Amino acid sequence: MDIKGAVLAVHVVLSTRRIQYAVGGRYAIEVLYSTGPDGPEYDTPLNTLTVFVDCEKEYVVNALINSNQPFGLTSVMGLVYDPVGNPANVFFGPGRYVISHRGALSKNNSQQDVEYISADPIYIEVLQSQRDPYYFPWISWAPKLRRPINSILDIYVLHPKVFVIIMARLWNFTPRESDAMRYLADVRLLLRWLAQESLEIDFACYRGTPKPNLLRTFGSLYALHDDVRELLRNTMKPADLVLARDFDLYF
What we know:
By secondary structure, the chain is α+β, with helices and mostly antiparallel strands. The protein has helices at residues 3-16, 25-33, 57-65, 160-173, 177-196, 211-224, 226-235, 238-246, and strands spanning 21-24, 48-53, 71-74, 78-81, 89-93, 96-100, 122-128, 144-148, 154-158. The strands form three sheets. The chain has a five-stranded mixed sheet. It starts with a helix and ends in a 5-residue tail after the last helix. GO terms for molecular function: calcium ion binding; nucleoside diphosphate phosphatase activity.
């Protein structure tokens, strides 16, 4: 795995194009909890990097695959970072992954001049703000933290006071129980981080979605999970907690 290399490559390409972004997902949480000037001391076994953007997802994907960084498109996984397989445009051939040269995706599944994708590429999940059903916040307005990824570069991570709202909405809307449990674990980690830093969830920074809709999600969290309840008491403004707890939400 080389998720650290993936986030560096994403940062370089998007910063060069002046595309505002923020890293989310479990890797961002690991970065938040890491210490030291060079970020995480080890490369995580995670194989997914989540990136939030405001602009069209297709524009970001094209910027990445047309850069000099080892990004590519696969028919099965979508956008990947794979310095070992050196991906370009990838499609599924008979019984294997087949990669054609960058910018020359074959229509007839040609296997001439091909390379192979490695066994463990990093999947790049690009999420665009204000799209149904989650309506992620405008990233250009959302608070971010700069976190070192090596001795030279910092990356932008969504601030937990907004990041936790995103993860709570993912927990609330996902149809798969396994995903819901994973998102709930992330919510717990982010709430603990906020509690340790004596910070509160900031619904005002989640631009683009009515606050009652956001509070309703936290009301569900409060009602369903006893351990989360105490964390919410320590990380929500009292007035917000009352609204969420009692479901006394205006429209």
